[in-house]
Amino acid sequence: MRLLLVEDDLALQANLKQHLLDAHYSIDVASDGEEGLYQAIEYNYDAAIIDVGLPKLDGISLIRRVRQKERAFPILILTARDSWQDKVEGLDAGADDYLTKPFHPEELVARLKALIRRSAGKASPVITNGPFSLNTSSLEVRKGDELVTLSGSEYKLFEIFMLHQGEVKSKTALTEHIYDQDFDLDSNVIEVFIRRLRKKLDPDNQYNLIETLRGQGYRLRVISPDE
Is the Methyltransferase keyword given for this protein (predicted)? Predict the structure, then answer.
């Protein structure tokens, strides 16, 4: 999952970025509203964290302009303790949730996970497909009762597939969701990770779990209950 963090407090920005990296997110950061707006429009994100009190362009205006550009990813706003007006204005502008400073980074991560799940139509932290399950809280992947060990990048890739079962994802789109904007999008790293996921999750190709659609990308096949 790829996130945008727009926060002008550099110490807080660095702290949040590290916690989000530890939670297996890829993070792009901006320190003012204008840079945040550029990145929000230019790149594809699964969610954004936007501080209300930003220089150059305030967070409320940033959110309004992002929504005017029809960017639909979930947005979590950060507000000061007593600024209830900012909370109301932020939600009215198009934010999906808010968090009041000071807060624990663990709460921010939990709220983000919930927002991303809801945006994909998933209410529970445990997402299933046939015998396969992915727990977005514990970051565990299982095949039946068996725990499957995945690397951080493999987990990110499988999480995207599980959140968007049956949808075709191009290699470029998958790369953009896993890495930041400095990553080489022409890399064949996605192909490598797809092979690893197939080997770890469905080595005998019993379920044809991850389908390749020539010229289009990849798709996680939805497994029917009787399989």
Answer: no
